[in-house]
């Protein structure tokens, strides 16, 4: 399909500027100089400040939107002119100096409840008194803003010691930044490799995370470039793999575990979480029905000699808590709240164990 300027404008109107929540076109950020030559596209975005921390992510989101909505063959490389110069990227070795433990939450396949577990784990850690941050890096379906009821949050920019940083949204004691903040929720922009990686790197380096005991990253399912980018960008303490007891999920969980343990990635696996381990009806809490098979996750953990960090039942309230933006981990004393508290405690024990194994100079201590 031939490209024409309105197609580009329509695509850019799907991208929002997180600072104000307005789309790029209504915000007046798209300059009047869109040029098209065959499938080559050039356009300029206007930013007020040279060190606006959203520049890189917004440019990447704009490129992705053009490829998604205007033409998958559009060539936009090298033709973007930002009216003000770009901010200098942070040095990789200085990333997150105030964060004590970085935990990657992953799964072999989608739909096993990885994001639900990540959200509840973050809340459970906060309930235990830890300082917690969560980065939603699930480019296929960023669901954390909904689970934390901050879908309409505008992560604004704040000056901290002379640097302009992106202030995370915050709820239930958890600081949250999501790749979902860069697109309108009704526009499912398909993030592509390098663009997604760069946008995520920026949320890490320019996020005002401050001091954290635990920084959780909700990774996309499977194995991808994002996984590689994260391990190259950050000193990850360990990974948690979420699975259901079902054979197909276990087979993919196994692949995920071997990816983390491979030479290229080399991230310790802190343990496995068996989600949807059994169904329990609210009115008969003692009854357990093994819908997806019994103890598949437990057996895989035993076989691979990795800790089983927790078994989470499939319960209606967990699904409802996700949909309503009120994670069940908030409610201590309930069966589901306790399941996530235990999971959090086991994860803390494993990461402390991991820190003890490190050289004394690298060791970190978590104080509440
Ligand atoms: P993933 O991140 O692995 O794709 P999600 O966390 O989005 O999976 O979960 C998929 C669906 O299953 C969501 O609707 C979620 O509410 C539901 N879900 C996840 N875990 C549970 C559970 N333990 N009990 C009930 N529903 C769950």
Task: Please explain how this structure is put together.
With 368 residues, the protein is of the alpha/beta class. It has 2 domains: 5-87, GMP Synthetase, Chain A, domain 3 (2-Layer Sandwich); 99-362, P-loop containing nucleotide triphosphate hydrolases (Rossmann fold). It contains 10 helices and 14 strands. The strands form 4 sheets. An 8-stranded mixed beta sheet has the order 9-10-6-11-5-12-13-14, sandwiched between helices. The longest helix is centred in the last third of the chain and has 23 residues, at 335-357. The termini are far apart. The model is unreliable at 85-92 and 361-368 (pLDDT under 50). Bound molecules: adenosine-5'-diphosphate (ADP). Adenosine-5'-diphosphate is lined by residues 107, 110-116, 143, 221, 275-276, 312, 314-315, 318-319, 322.
List keywords for this structure.
368 residues; alpha/beta; GMP Synthetase, Chain A, domain 3; Rossmann fold; 2 domains; eight-stranded mixed beta sheet; two-stranded antiparallel ribbon; 33% helix; globular; disordered C terminus; binds adenosine-5'-diphosphate
Task: Please give a quick description of this structure.
This protein is α/β, with parallel strands linked by helices.
Question: What is this structure's SSE topology?
Answer:
Blueprint: H1 5-12, E1 35-37, E2 40-42, E3 44-45, H2 55-70, E4 81-82, E5 99-107, H3 114-127, E6 132-136, H4 144-147, E7 157-160, E8 163-166, E9 169-171, E10 174-178, H5 193-205, E11 212-218, H6 225-233, E12 238-243, H7 247-261, E13 269-279, H8 296-304, E14 308-314, H9 316-324, H10 335-357
Parallel strand pairs: 3-4, 5-11, 5-12, 6-10, 6-11, 12-13, 13-14
Antiparallel strand pairs: 1-2, 7-8, 9-10
Helix pairs in contact: 1-2, 2-5, 3-10, 5-6
């Amino acid at each position: 399909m031939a490209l024409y300027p309105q197609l580009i404008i329509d695509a850019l109107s799907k991208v929002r500027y997180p600072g104000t929540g307005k789309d790029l076109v209504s915000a007046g950020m798209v300059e009047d100089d869109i040029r098209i030559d065959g499938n080559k596209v050039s356009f300029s975005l206007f930013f007020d400040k040279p060190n606006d921390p959203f520049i890189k992510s917004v440019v990447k989101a704009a490129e992705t939107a053009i490829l998604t909505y205007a033409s998958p063959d559009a060539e936009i490389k090298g033709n973007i002119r930002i009216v003000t110069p770009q901010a200098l990227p942070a040095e990789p070795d200085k990333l997150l100096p105030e964060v004590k433990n970085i935990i990657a939450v992953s799964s072999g396949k989608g739909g096993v409840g990885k994001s639900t577990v990540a959200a509840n784990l973050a809340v459970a850690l906060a309930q235990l008194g830890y300082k917690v941050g969560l980065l939603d890096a699930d480019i296929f379906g960023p669901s954390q803003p909904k689970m934390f009821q901050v879908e309409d949050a505008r992560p604004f920019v704040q000056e901290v010691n002379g640097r302009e940083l992106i202030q995370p949204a915050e709820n239930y004691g958890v600081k949250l930044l999501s790749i979902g903040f860069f697109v309108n929720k009704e526009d499912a922009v398909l993030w592509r490799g390098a663009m997604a990686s760069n946008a995520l790197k920026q949320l890490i380096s320019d996020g005002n995370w401050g001091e954290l005991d635990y920084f959780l990253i909700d990774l996309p399912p499977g194995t991808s470039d994002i996984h590689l980018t994260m391990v190259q960008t950050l000193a990850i303490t360990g990974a948690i793999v979420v699975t259901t007891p079902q054979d197909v999920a276990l087979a993919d969980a196994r692949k995920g575990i071997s990816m983390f343990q491979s030479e290229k990635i080399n991230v310790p696996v802190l343990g496995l979480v068996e989600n949807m381990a059994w169904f329990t009806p609210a009115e008969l809490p003692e009854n357990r029905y093994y819908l997806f098979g019994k103890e598949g996750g437990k057996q895989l953990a035993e076989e691979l000699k990795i800790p089983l960090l927790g078994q989470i039942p499939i319960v209606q309230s967990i699904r409802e808590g996700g949909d309503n933006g009120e994670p069940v981990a908030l409610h201590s004393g309930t069966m589901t709240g306790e399941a996530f508290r235990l999971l959090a405690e086991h994860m803390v024990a494993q990461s402390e164990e991991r820190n003890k194994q490190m050289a004394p100079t690298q060791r970190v201590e978590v104080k509440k």
